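Q&A log
Question type: sequence-to-structure
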Amino acid sequence: MKHFVDVAHGRLLVEMQRRETVRSACKDAVAMYATMEEKIQDRLIRLHGLTKTHGKKAQIVKDEWIEIMKLIRELDLLIEKYPDLKSKGPYVLLMETIQETGLRVTTERLNYNNWTYKYNMVCRVFPQGLVALACGFKEEPFLYGPLNYASLHQH
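Response status: OK
Response body:
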């Protein structure tokens, strides 16, 4: 039973670490997406202003168009890496990712607490409780509320 509690604890740690990694990558992708959209909009506004004039500014218009195409290619690469960015929008994706990873951590915390309950019951029941006491097995604490990854890692 102690082994199952330790395995559940390990799974919880993995999900918590995964949550931080996924959340960080998603936040970075959303930030990149928003920055690229802003740059594209700024370039298009500038290009629109330049197209009202003729002559010497023709080369500037061409250069701006090239920069816009580069930004659009970068945006396309980002969308290929994170397809939900385009279909859902960057902020909806971020919220869904945070919710999904939080749910996975909650599920693993419930699994851990379930195994902890079973293990603690074995430590209390006669005659297993006597064997557990003789072997040095002690009851494990339940995990409640928001979890701090650093505090769990010491367990």
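Response note: Residues 2-50 form the longest helix (49 residues).
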